[in-house]
Amino acid sequence: VELKAVERYVNYALNQPVKVTSAAKGHDGGQLVDGNLDRDNGWWSENTATGPHRERHREYALPQSAIVALEKTRTVDHVSVLPYYFDRERLERYGRPRFQQFFVETSMDGKNWKTVFDERKNIKTTFGDPLERWFEPHEAKFVKLTVTYNSMLSGARIIEMGVFGPQKEFQAIMRKPADPGKIVFPINMSEIPPEKIDYLLD
């Protein structure tokens, strides 16, 4: 079966240079725009605690910012941000919301900024879906993300940011081969005790 290509908006931020105010080891600014949506990937700000007990008593100063320099001047009209998140099981165990507050700005010169995405009053828990905001189309050369608060008190932790405009592209759908070690075969019903079987139909 031939899979048809899917139309999508071009991500102008993808793999573009990023300058950050700080970054934890293994979580540099480039991971903010590398297209990898894995939860443990992304830009994390560094631990700012000092002294011999730095790793035990961590501190994370906020705000922290990341500036993406687009390849060239682009007409932009929406931005998506995927903050770090916990799975629902862990959230239930913690018993309290987990969220970050941030805002996104655009600029032509890297000095004068226009806010296009403002989540500084956000108190909603993130469950792994990117937050997306649309706005009036305008030209931009730089896009800045600033994290102002993290309910986990662990600094800026952003998995991915995308910057988009009206331009679209077609993405080929790649068929991934199955991993034989992860294939699960149906259970042999004959091996299950009758009292353990629930039938949908009599």
Q: Give the fraction of residues assigned to helices.
A: under 10%
Element string (H = helix, E = strand): EEEEHEEEE
> How much β-strand is present in the residues?
35-45%
Largest sheet: 8 strands, antiparallel
**SS summary, helix count:** 1
Q: What does the oligomeric state look like here?
A: single chain
Q: How far is it from the N-terminal to the C-terminal residue, by CA? A: 38 Å
Would you tell me the structural class of the helices and strands?
mainly beta
Given the C-alpha coordinates, what overall shape results? Answer: globular
The pLDDT mean sits at 86
Radius of gyration: 22 Å
Number of strand elements: 8
Which regions contain 5 or more consecutive residues with pLDDT less than 50? none
Topology:
Layout (H helix, E strand, L loop, with lengths): L5 E6 L6 E3 L22 E2 L19 E20 L4 H7 L5 E8 L6 E5 L12 E20 L6 E15 L31
Antiparallel strand pairs: 1-8, 2-4, 3-8, 4-7, 4-8, 5-6, 5-7
Task: Describe the fold and architecture.
It contains one helix and eight strands; from the N terminus they run ββββαββββ. With 202 residues, it is mainly β. Strands 1, 2, 3, 4, 5, 6, 7 and 8 form an eight-stranded antiparallel beta sheet that branches. It starts with 5 loop residues before the first strand and ends in a 31-residue tail after the last strand. The mean pLDDT is 86.
